[in-house]
């Protein structure tokens, strides 16, 4: 028997099957095989139609069943991971009233910043744990202000994962973790964020019913069966945003646990039981998947680095090299510190951890007589690693004391230079696991039973690859990092 996991991304939908008894991954598919498109009517806008996600979900399920010779009656539950911060609005018949305003759409930035100033930084910090910023609540306010005819027709708003669950089940609901990522949750009152709803003039009735992250949230309807090929009555057991879900996929649940990913962008996601926030404008704070009202808090502190793997990919595309492997070989021939070459990797837009400054990418101290592409490759890996270390310093100042760091076996963590640099500078082992969001969501479907210990053991048994340990010659790494940080601070002072 199997659980189905879905990961609703903005570039593709991934679907996975795992065995219910062992958690072993049976198969993963992606739809479409090329990236999904986005609608961008204006600069800074990004929209996708929710029904496009659903069509890709249905195709992915069909492929997964066919390629693995699985019958519908063998699928015993569903888990859903989804792109965070998106806005879906539907009418009384459950039909989308407009395209979804997705996570990377920046139209509501000014709305959120004004709310932060008006409500007050201290109040936002203690109640919302965040600036309202460009999150889902601010996007809904944008619809209210700019598309009143649509706003007046809204029956409920949903996050992307809520909508997919609705398409399966014809039931509209959400979770506390989901509401918190949209800045709809007040951690001080442990309830709906009336303070922000009233400020924005948003009708509280637009909020869906709240269900637990791990329970029978809804069941597949007859219509859901007809469209998806999943039998009516199959339970949806789990739902979470992609970053909390990635942490779950790495068995990150308790204070001191830290998850990291190093793809196009980089993420450090740390768990704390404290509601104290010092960095509400540089770090996002959300209810983690195991947050429960009336219990000790489980908060996920999310620090995102936009300029991460995209920097290394840019070098691959623009240097005279054929592969990442060749780049890594070239980089390994260069000593720690890249013979003085310093690369500031923040060339993928404004960086929240740099107070939303857009400083671009900088290549510094390049000597045209002595340095070559190997130095650029090493300096890029080091510069990206240094940005992770810089982010960890921010999280440490915000109260995080890491006890374990787990990372996915994605692009950056496949590089020994990158992983060793991070592990050495933060003086912490980094455990590497081979897993994906879709596999994590599928396994999480079993957590409705409440057995987190078995869940963690299955991740270790199925996914553990290796551990990077801090190197003994930390001094040379520290000197290189100090030089990089000094260059960054000069740039920030003049920006």
Q: What's the structural domain tally?
A: 2
Low-confidence spans: none
| N- to C-terminal distance | 57 Å
Number of helices: 17
What fraction, in percent, of the residue positions are helical?
25-40%
Q: β content, as a range? A: 15-25%
Task: Report the biggest beta sheet as strand number plus sense, adding barrel if it closes.
Answer: 7 strands, mixed
Rg (C-alpha, Å): 22 Å
Number of strands: 23
Per CATH, the architecture of the largest domain is 2-Layer Sandwich
Indicate the structural class: alpha+beta
Main β-sheet, spatial strand arrangement = 17-18-16-15-21-22-23
Query: What's the overall average pLDDT, rounded?
Result: 95
Outline type? globular
CATH-defined superfamily of the largest domain: ATPase, nucleotide binding domain
CATH topology category name of the largest domain: Nucleotidyltransferase, domain 5
CATH class of the largest domain: Alpha Beta
Protein name: Carbohydrate kinase
InterPro entries: ATPase_NBD, Carb_kinase_FGGY, FGGY_C, FGGY_Carb_Kinase, FGGY_N
Keywords: Kinase, Transferase
Domain Carbohydrate kinase FGGY C-terminal: 259-443
In brief:
It contains 17 helices and 23 strands. The strands form seven sheets. A seven-stranded mixed β-sheet has the order 17-18-16-15-21-22-23, with helices on both faces.
What would you note in describing this structure?
The protein is an alpha+beta fold and 495 residues long. The chain folds into two domains: 244 residues, ATPase, nucleotide binding domain (Nucleotidyltransferase, domain 5, 2-Layer Sandwich), CATH 3.30.420.40; 229 residues, 2-Layer Sandwich (Nucleotidyltransferase, domain 5). 37% of the residues lie in helices and 22% in strands. The protein contains 17 helices and 23 strands. The strands form seven sheets. The chain has a seven-stranded mixed beta sheet, sandwiched between helices. The chain has a six-stranded mixed beta sheet with strand order 3-2-1-5-14-13, with helices on both faces. The protein has a two-stranded antiparallel sheet with strand order 4-7. Helix 10 packs across helix 15, helix 11 packs antiparallel against helix 13 and helix 13 runs parallel beside helix 14. It is globular and about 70 Å long. One of its GO terms (molecular function) is kinase activity. Keywords: Kinase, Transferase. Belongs to the FGGY kinase family. One of its GO terms (biological process) is carbohydrate metabolic process. InterPro entries: ATPase_NBD, Carb_kinase_FGGY, FGGY_C, FGGY_Carb_Kinase, FGGY_N.
């Amino acid at each position: 028997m199997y659980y189905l996991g879905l990961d609703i991304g903005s570039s593709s939908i991934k679907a996975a099957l795992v065995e219910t008894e062992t958690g072993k991954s049976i198969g993963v598919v992606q739809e479409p095989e090329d990236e999904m498109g986005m609608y961008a009517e204006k600069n800074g806008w990004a929209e996708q139609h929710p029904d496009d996600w659903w069509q890709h979900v249905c195709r992915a399920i069909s492929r997964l069943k066919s390629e693995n010779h699985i019958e519908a009656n063998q699928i015993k539950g569903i888990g859903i991971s989804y792109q965070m911060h998106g806005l879906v609005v539907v009418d009384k018949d459950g039909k989308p009233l407009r395209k979804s305003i997705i996570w990377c759409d920046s139209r509501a930035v000014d709305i959120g910043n004004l709310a932060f100033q008006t409500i007050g930084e201290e109040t936002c910090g203690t109640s919302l744990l965040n600036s309202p910023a460009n999150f889902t609540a601010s996007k809904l306010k944008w619809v209210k202000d700019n598309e009143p005819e649509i706003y007046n027709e809204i029956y409920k708003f949903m996050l992307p994962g809520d909508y997919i669950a609705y398409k399966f089940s014809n039931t509209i609901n959400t979770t506390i973790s989901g509401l918190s990522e949209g800045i709809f949750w007040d951690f001080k009152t442990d309830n709906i964020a009336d303070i922000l709803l009233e400020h924005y003039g948003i009708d509280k009735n637009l909020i869906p019913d709240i269900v637990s992250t791990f329970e029978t949230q809804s069941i597949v309807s007859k219509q859901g069966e007809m469209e998806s090929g999943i039998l009516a009555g199959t339970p949806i057991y789990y739902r979470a945003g992609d970053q909390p879900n990635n942490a779950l996929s790495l068995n990150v649940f308790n204070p001191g646990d830290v998850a990291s990913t190093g793809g196009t962008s980089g993420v450090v996601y740390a768990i704390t039981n404290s509601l104290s926030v010092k960095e509400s404008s540089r770090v996002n704070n959300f209810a983690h998947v195991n947050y429960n009202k009336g219990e000790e808090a489980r908060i996920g502190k999310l620090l995102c680095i936009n300029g991460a793997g995209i920097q290394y990919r840019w070098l691959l595309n623009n240097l005279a090299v054929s592969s990442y492997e060749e780049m890594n070989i070239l980089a390994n021939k260069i000593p720690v510190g890249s013979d003085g070459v310093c690369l500031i990797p923040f060339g993928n837009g404004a960086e929240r951890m740099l107070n939303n400054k857009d400083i671009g990418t900088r290549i510094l101290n390049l000597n045209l007589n002595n340095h070559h592409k190997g130095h650029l490759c090493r300096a890029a890996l080091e510069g990206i690693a240094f940005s992770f270390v810089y982010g960890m310093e921010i999280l440490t100042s915000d109260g995080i004391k890491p006890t374990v760091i787990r990372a996915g076996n994605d692009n950056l963590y496949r590089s020994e230079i990158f992983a060793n640099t991070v592990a050495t500078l933060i003086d912490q082992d980094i455990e590497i696991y081979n897993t994906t969001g879709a596999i994590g969501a599928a396994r999480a479907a079993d957590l409705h039973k409440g057995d987190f210990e078995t869940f963690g053991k299955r991740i270790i048994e199925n996914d553990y690859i290796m551990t990077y340990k801090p190197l003994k010659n930390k001094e040379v790494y520290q000197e290189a990092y100090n030089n990089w940080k000094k260059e960054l601070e000069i740039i920030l002072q003049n920006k």
